[in-house]
Design a protein that fits this description.
The complex is a heterodimer of chains A (113) and B (114). By secondary structure, chain A is mainly beta. The chains are: A mainly beta (113), B mainly beta (114).
Chain lengths: 113, 114
């Protein structure tokens, strides 16, 4: 059973470009969470999604950031018009329904130049 | 607001020197407390879930315990391969709904010297 798959592992974008981060949850997991880890900071919750629904986006910046988890395909975290401050590691986690434990992917390291 | 504080920030041990990491928390109804291990450049690796005060769980050289205000991760006779950042996180009771949002502490960077 493959783990949570994130791609790309590393992403370099110039200021003003768009970044798209993808996350395929573990088989049988219908809940997806996105977290951001800024340099020298801890993991911070961004958004919680179930298939075709955003359950909690209280940790998402109000502008430029969006997330989706379509009926088919991976979850996508989209960052429009990236700025240097968006440089961070973005982690996706997934869990099955009603479970408490979440399992993390290896992350996407975004660098904005 | 849920809060998690881990101490110390960094811990250096000699191989075989046992010690403990602390995780203090405040949460509006604890649904679970989680310990993860994170190696440089990798994602957090799940270690333990603790659900109620008094609970203990063990895995190899690690033992996690839980009280109403804090959790400890005890490391017995550590080896260099135990070097990593250890993360503590809490999950709040969302009133009966299935909700897995985690609030993390800053982590403890553990270095075990041979």
């Amino acid at each position: 059973n493959a783990g949570v798959m994130q791609n790309p592992r590393h992403l370099v974008r110039r200021r003003g470009q768009e970044a798209r981060l993808r996350c395929s949850p573990m088989k049988g997991h219908s809940h997806v969470y996105w977290y951001r880890q800024l340099p020298e900071e801890g993991l911070k919750f961004m958004v919680y999604l179930q298939k075709e629904n955003i359950i909690d986006e209280s940790g998402m910046p109000k502008e430029r950031f969006s997330a989706e988890f379509p009926k088919e395909g991976p979850s996508i975290l989209r960052i429009q018009q990236v700025v240097r401050g968006d440089s961070a590691a973005y982690f996706c986690a997934s869990s099955p329904p009603m479970a408490r434990e979440a399992f993390f992917g290896q992350g996407t390291r975004l660098t904005v130049v | 607001e849920d809060q998690v504080t881990q101490s110390p920030e960094a811990l250096r041990l000699q191989e075989g020197e046992s010690s403990s990491l602390n995780c203090s928390y405040t949460v509006s109804g604890l649904r679970g407390l989680f310990w993860y291990r994170q190696d440089p450049g990798k994602g957090p690796e799940f270690l333990f879930t603790l659900y109620s005060a008094g609970e203990e769980k063990e895995k190899e050289r690690l033992k996690a315990t839980l009280t109403k205000k804090e959790s400890f991760l005890h490391i017995t006779a550590p080896k260099p391969e135990d070097s990593a950042t250890y993360l503590c996180a809490v999950q709040a009771d969302a009133g009966g709904t299935s909700y897995g949002k985690l609030t993390f502490g800053q982590g403890t960077i553990l270095t075990v010297h041979p």
